[in-house]
Amino acid sequence: MKLIIKSIFFLSIVISVNAQDIDKSFLTSEQVSELYKQMISEIEFLDAEAIVVRNKTKDISWDQYKKYHEKQFKKVDNYQELRQKFLDFGRGFVSGHSYFRFTYPTEKTKKNRYKSSIKIGYTYPNISFFDLETKKTIQKIDDVSMKDVFKKFVNYETRSNGLGTSQASFKFRFENGLKINGKIPKSITYSDGSSKKIVYHKNEDKASWYNRYKAIDVSGYKDWKLVKKGYKAALLVKNKIALVKIKNFAYKRGSNDLRCTLEAKDSTICSDIQKLRQGLQLIKDEVDHIVFDVQDNPGGKENSSFMAELCSSQFMDLRVQYKKTGLLLNENLRLELSYGFSGAEKWFENILKNKIYEKTKTGDFLPARADFCRGSENCDLAYIQPNKTAKRKFKNVIVLVNENTASSADDFAYRMKEYGNALIVGQPQSADLTFALVTVVFYIDDNGSIKKTYIGNDQREYKIAGQEIFQFSIPYSRTVNKQGEMLQGNPAKLDLLVELNKENFENRELYVLNNAIKKFINNN
């Protein structure tokens, strides 16, 4: 059947299927094997980042990972088991922006969510975990060494690429009922030989563990004076230091007003930018240094308006490279893979006209272009001038990061270092900033054959002639620096690593801030 593609950015459509009308006979072992082979083949042909990052950051290579899961797929004999093995595979796919979704209707079973009575912390770069209550180092979970538990988790059970980011992921999963060797753990053993029982209670809180649309809270900065506070960003001041705290870039309403000169509605990017602009103008004669805090900032929408207002020098969009495959010859899909930017189409027309596309081998990467096309109407890599109000002079520009700094917050740190001469302080960021994603939808047609189709980025509406089994979304572009090196899995070089330990873990953000001030401001 011909693929039908429509651009839908705000409407989410769920394909509903009456389970009673579906033939419940399971796939043959040959079909399961073929399904897995086709899934791997699609990933290896289309993926632009995840496989390379796994091979760079994990002990278990991509070849080892796929062989392990091939054995797991061979064990399934019903759709419920297939669902679990498929999701297990996706859980260890090294890309924080990817998703794996099993869509074949299976019998719904109520899944209890648990909260552990034990909350844990971790140390970095000396990797260890400890009980936050007792401050004792955890040696074992049940009878399995903590070292072995975490090693397996890093290699098979997290999409995070760095050790620090994997630690944060492990903490969350452990505190929410992580299974060890298929079982919910009952106890932990400390390094001194003593032990503690783990008690679980059902987690009745249906809200997300992280409310991305919740407004910023700066109550923890008790000895700082609040100058301006917006929806997601706030400006504070102390001792000639301006502190800009950005919770995330997740705004419900976006804006194409790069300079934020138009009247802005509340709780938007531009309303925050305008508040920061007003605040920085108010304190311009009383500050010599500026600190941008994007610790625990998981990203969100495009941050170019923040760059235009907060970076005093000219800057560029991030550099992205698309893989050359036949998908790019489908105009509708190509538009989806570029978020509908007209400049991206002009860029593609130019590389066709100049024979660059033709000369690039299938599977290789096309030349880098600008991601959000802010510097050029053709998506060329061109400088973007800062706002006139952004041309402020500071003795020091510092960006605070940690392992939970991700996506567009990653982008902010990279670009402030490259163009704003910023010092990077904290722990290595997540280095997870995929731009374009392609989704592969697998289904069984009316003749019982396994088929697939493709959709891009935010696309939600599509049609297939058969019953969908699953879909997965993987990186189709890679983000690179000016040397052409991939940024995914490659954190910005730290100018000061602030170690995490038992004493500072629960107050880590302020600890990093104070260390940055001590090292680069007070010492000078």
Written account of the structure:
The chain has 524 residues and is α+β, with helices and mostly antiparallel strands. It folds into two domains: 96-109 and 213-523, 2-enoyl-CoA Hydratase, Chain A, domain 1, CATH 3.90.226.10; 114-202, no CATH class. 28% of the residues lie in helices and 19% in strands. It has 13 helices and 22 strands. The chain has helices at 29-46, 50-57, 62-73, 79-91, 146-156, 163-174, 269-282, 304-310, 331-337, 342-353, 356-359, 408-419, 508-522; strands at residues 99-102, 114-116, 120-123, 128-131, 138-141, 144-145, 187-190, 195-197, 200-202, 225-229, 233-238, 241-246, 289-293, 319-322, 369-370, 396-401, 423-426, 437-445, 450-456, 466-475, 477-480, 496-497. The strands form six sheets. A seven-stranded mixed β-sheet has the order 10-11-12-13-16-17-22, sandwiched between helices. A hairpin with a 2-residue loop joins β5 (138-141) and β6 (144-145). α3 (62-73) packs antiparallel against α4. The termini are far apart. The model is unreliable at 1-23 (pLDDT under 50). Residues 275-499 form the Tail specific protease domain. InterPro entries: ClpP/crotonase-like_dom_sf, Tail-specific_protease. Pfam families: Peptidase_S41 (PF03572). Keywords: Signal. This is Tail specific protease domain-containing protein.
